[in-house]
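Kindly draft a sequence, keeping tokens residue-aligned:
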Amino acid sequence: MLTVNGQPVKELTTSQLVHQLGRPGKIDKGAVECGARLEILNKIDSPAGDIWYYGNTRYEVSGPHAILSSFDVTTGKFQGKLGQLILNQNTTLEDVRRIFPEAAKQADVPSTGRPGEEMSLPFYYKGEQMDESLNLLFKKGHLQEVEFFSPC
């Protein structure tokens, strides 16, 4: 179970989002075309969703619906917890390797050619691995960003 700032990651209304974080610093209209986390955006005739930016933290937004799509841990404003692993600016690759050794092995030979810079932790449902994952992005061995990934 992943929590961010002590709360489970779930869909919320845009009014709740604005109440919690204020107005976004930037909005990219129609930027979410596929691989959306919001259920409403995965319907056949739904318009592309928007991305609301709070610094480097992003939310998918469609009408009154919003959900966290990635969060920046470098400012200290956002912190996650995945089981016993704390996801913040002090989290290192070695911390993740101790708790998720299999994911760490895969990260040593990533498709990007930058060993150890990205670690993918797949989601499971009833014991079956899903296409979705939690991507941990590192720079010089320290966590920078946590991204929810869903393929198109």
